[in-house]
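Lytic murein transglycosylase: structure, please.
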Amino acid sequence: MIRGWQIATSALAIVVMAATLTAEANAAQCGNGPGGFEAWKEQFAGEARAKGVGATATDALMQTHYASATIAADRGQRSFGLSLEQFMAKRGSATIVARGRSLKQSQAAMFASIQQRYGVPPGPLIAIWGMESGFGSQRGNQNMLSSIATLAYDCRRPEFFTEQLYAALKLIDRGSLSGSTRGSMHGEIGQTQFMPKNVLAYGTGNLDVAANALASTANFLRANGWRAGAGYQPGEPNFAAIEAWNAAGVYQKAIAIMGRQIDGQ
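Here you go.
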């Protein structure tokens, strides 16, 4: 009996391995230039349909174009290699803090409501808002779906952006986004520049509306460990939530510093 079970198990393992290899062979292949993008779209759309993605979203995917500007931006993120002082000067931290203090006063009721619900004070939210979109003035003018599809096809980080692409397609199927939605170079949308997976997980309403975007950002921070009343400077409990928002060390420290200055600490 044991011998027969071992043979059956081995045969099953061979079948599973063969099926896995077949699926991998049929999966859409990444590329490093525009040449294979159209064929990749066809393959990816087929995989998406098999996973239950609807016609509205797959049709939108088939209308995307290879976003050369997105690839150029993805290869040229040099500001994250600057020193903290250089980074803050380049990003206009003094202007963000000055305007942020004004907005904290003029929008006090909104920020009080957000803090009561999520436990996040105005400073870091305002710093993120200013850093990400210049307080809503620079939300990007790229086709969101083309940017994300291009990065999912590109061989540099296909796994990360494939997840983002499936999230974008789900949002399009729901009617929350469309194939014509505009965003920044990597597909970020709204006043605090959410990626599609984060829209699905933490978004509250139309993120082009400041109150919704800021509430969504607070929701993200709380979900990533933010504790009401705790500090958010490096080494303090809430700094980890800022780290979850953006992986670049200079960005994280800049947000903490500007947030403290806006909050008057």
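Notes: Confidence is low (pLDDT under 50) at residues 5-9, 11-25.
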